[in-house]
Amino acid sequence: MYNLSTTNATTVYTVPSEKTAFINSLRLNEISGNATSWDVTITDSSANVFSVYKSYAIAAGQEQELFSRNWILNEGDILKFTAATADRLVLHASILERDQGVNNKFIAKHNDYTTTDETTVYTVPAAKKAILSELWFSNDDTGNTIAVTVKMYNSEGTAFILSEGTIAAGTSGEAMARPQIMDESEAIKVTAGTANRLHTHFSILEIGNPG
Questions:
Q1: Residue 210 CB contacts under 8 Å (≥ 6 apart), including other chains
Q2: 130 touches 182 (CB < 8 A)
Q3: Direct distance between the N- and C-terminal alpha carbons of the chain, in angstroms, rounded to an integer
Q4: Which of 14, 51, 55, 193 is an S-S bond match for 140, by CB 3.0 to 4.6 Å?
Q5: Would you say the C-alpha torsion 95, 100, 105, 107 has a positive or negative sign?
Q6: Residue where a domain stops, chosen among 50, 82, 98
Q7: What angle do CA 97, 18, 129 make, to 5 degrees?
Q8: How much is the mean pLDDT over the chain?
Q9: Are residues 179 and 151 part of one domain?
């Protein structure tokens, strides 16, 4: 629990060594009677920074749950929250830590698209299946929309569109209504219509083939 008494980036949580973490809830309350805005980022273990929310506003006296689905974070990932104005926001984070799996492994894929080329985000390894449980889009350009296409490729290399459209300026949100099962050698690829605007966050459960 945090009283956000500064406009500096506040480290909410860092995933410990040899752990995977699940954000079950990230709840925000405005306590001063004034609307204010805020940012959420994830910094990975290589110090790459990925936008989750950019310049989002909460109304005076309101409360808001920031995620509609559980989020996976990798070892070393750092969750940070920045308030535009001090002493207006209270944050409640509920997080589950677990040991990293071997046969069943939870994976987070964070991507910043610095090119308009199609980018391979994830390929199911040999003798594995995967469950894609969460896909989060974030357009960190607060002045321009961005086009985005997400495709799944089967093991023969045939593409099927999973999600396609535009993301409004400064908008973030969940794009997965239900989990999607992927078979061995299937892949997820993303194309951003404009470079340096789109960030995506995928949460994946990788499991050994049964039988």
A1: none
A2: yes
A3: 44
A4: 51
A5: positive
A6: 98
A7: 80
A8: 95
A9: yes
Longest alpha-carbon distance in the chain:
58
Closest to 81 (Cα-Cα) out of 2, 172, 168: 2
pLDDT of residue 211: 59
* Pair of tokens at residue 42: 């994830």
**Residue 32 is encoded by which pair of tokens?**
């001063």
Which residue carries 């960190």 as its tokens?
Answer: 140
Give me the residues of the chain with pLDDT under 50, please: none
Q: What is the pLDDT, as a whole number, of residue 31?
A: 96
For the whole model, what pTM was predicted? 0.93
d(CA 70, CA 75): 16
pLDDT in tens, 11-43: 999 999 999 999 999 999 999 999 999 999 999
When divided into structural domains, the chain yields a total of 2
* Amino acid residing at 56: Y
Q: Which of 86, 87, 137 has the alpha carbon at shortest distance from 112?
A: 137
One DSSP character per residue, 104-127 reads: SEEEEEEEE--SSS-EEEEEPPTT
Residue numbers of the domain that contains 49: 2-98
